Amino acid sequence: MENIQGILNGFVVLSNPSVFIYVIIGFFIGMFFGAVPGLTSCLAIALVLPLTYSMDIVSALVMCMGIFMAGIYSGSITAITINIPGAPSAMMTALEGNELMQKGQGAKALGHAAFASMIGGTIGSILLMLIAPFSLRLALLIKTPGKFSLIFFALMVIIMINRKSLAKGAIATFLGIMFATIGIDLMKPMVRFSFGINVLIEGLDLMAIIIGTFAISEVLIQAEKSQEEVNVKIEETEHQLKRRDFIPKWKDIKEIGVGSYIKSALIGFFVGVLPGAGGSMASFISYSEAVRSSKHPERFGTSKTLEGIAAAETANNAMCGGALVPMLAFGIPGDATTAVVLGVLIINGLQPGPQLMSTQFHLVAPMFAALFVSALILLPLSLFLLGPYCIKIVLIDRGILYASIATVAIVGAYVSTFSIFQMIIALIMGVIAYILRKQNFPVVCLLLGFILGPMAEEYFRRALSLGHGSPLIFIRSADSLFFLVLTVVFYYFLIVRRPLTK
Amino acid sequence: MLFNLKQKINNTMIICIILFIWNTIYMIEAISMGSPIRKGRVDVNFFPIVISCMMYLFTLYLLVHSFKQNKELTEINFTNKSRPILIIVFTIIYILLLKSIGYMLSSILYIFSIVSIFDSKKRSLYKKIIYSVIIAILIFLLYEKIFAIRLPKLGGMF
After folding, report:
1. Which of B133, B147, B153 has the most A C-beta neighbours within 10 Å, making it the best mutation to test the interface with A?
2. pTM value?
3. A261: which residues sit within 8 A by CB, 6+ positions away?
4. Which residues are within 8 A (CB) of A242 and not within 5 positions of it... i.e. 6 or more apart?
5. ipTM associated with this complex
6. What are the structural domain ranges in chain A?
7. Domain edges within chain B
8. Section A254-264 average pLDDT
């Protein structure tokens, strides 16, 4: 009952125009970053991160939610219209979406993508509101050895989920953990891994890591590419979109089936709960399930069905709600964007976990409300108002765009640390992430390792102290054993059986 | 022999070798802190040593794996890397100049350099300068006026 009251209060806070304006601003920022290929909602939040210092924390968090929801959705616009997914999570949408576009039914595909995103985002937000308080109670049951095993489980899942190269995921994660050990030790007043360099005593700032990994590396990656191909495609497709065709027909929705929307939303939400999984995996699994359970699997990948678009878009937007559950309850981010949102919380002095949810629920509840409103109202409204113009976003001059991003990133690193050293760290991290990305190392793992590494170490050392140095404490403690067994179960399903490769 | 070896080395292997060197430096630093277990309790270097061992394991695995899988010659091509390298150089200069000559002047120079690097339409110098000034002013207004965050200024002005 208390929680319902708290969530309703969240909606009341959000109804304040001075707060709601930030959801709208965030939504448009997210829509822009989601629609431009190469830019993501994660990068958008990384860039606004330094600005959150001077903002009210509730406004900052609701803005992040607007960016998150819009960034995931708007990737489908360029995926459908020009077959270039604006965000990686829209990759599956491009399969049928662009086929429909080429048959002159682009507006219909966009309408269904927005409708599915709306359904997915809304169900995901509702599930978040229902499950978050419950997960808080679960979080309270976990003691120190269990907390280590939970983070160990999360780190292992983050590594295992990189099916393309397990070793690359592991290396990126360990590199992140190693970077986090630089500076003063967590439990003893002792400097570690400064390598005789005085400035390293202060350690590496989370902000510098985020800005380097996501913003600077992206500018370097984009510097190698050309834009000519994109321009031609836009000129060909621009005239095909008419606003009235965006509204999905009931006949089509019935054909897809209400059950399919709900199933895809549930898949998306629970994939989101998994650490490191993210929107791409949510849409991929949901799409695969839609193919498996469809009466006409042969229609997938052609313009004859809308089921694939519905499955992928419902799932990736439902993922938004799911990804917030482990981040808020345990401080373990579900995907890259929530890892950066976690940065917003930490930088503003809030520590995610049971305490945040129980004593500062008034700060979190507007986030839930913002996610819900973004999905249910802003998402369809934005397509209707801005849909025809959205594809023009990719026409923006790359020089101006990336010069602005690079400047905001470097100035952001400066204003958040006022340290030339941390700015240099941001640049070095950008170069490292650029090199790693070029060789398909998942840099999200690096960030998650950097965030989760210190927590893992702290609980590991505390648990061993409690167990008088005996590692058996991790097996004797029931909650810890549960997560260790869960790790083995996930290992079996993700690595030994490898169902998704079939 | 040397040519064959060169053909066998790809970028992933180079990264593995760099990671191997970094990991060795890290491990030496960790070991130099003393015994990882003291009086039956793990010390500050225990966890880093465990991570470093895991890093060795996976780096070696990837190195061997990419050596076996290597089918094509992938030498580092510096021609398409020139733009990222230029951006890195200009960013270093920008970071060093930001505090000393202030936000506005350093940012105009930095934005101008990035716009020029990305410029595929061969715009006139005049246009690029105008764009750089406008972007620098917009970012200045965003930080200073909307979010009230102070930026470094030359002579207290810009």
Report:
1. B147
2. 0.84
3. A116, A119, A120, A123, A310, A314
4. A107, A388
5. 0.89
6. 2-501
7. 2-69, 82-146
8. 89
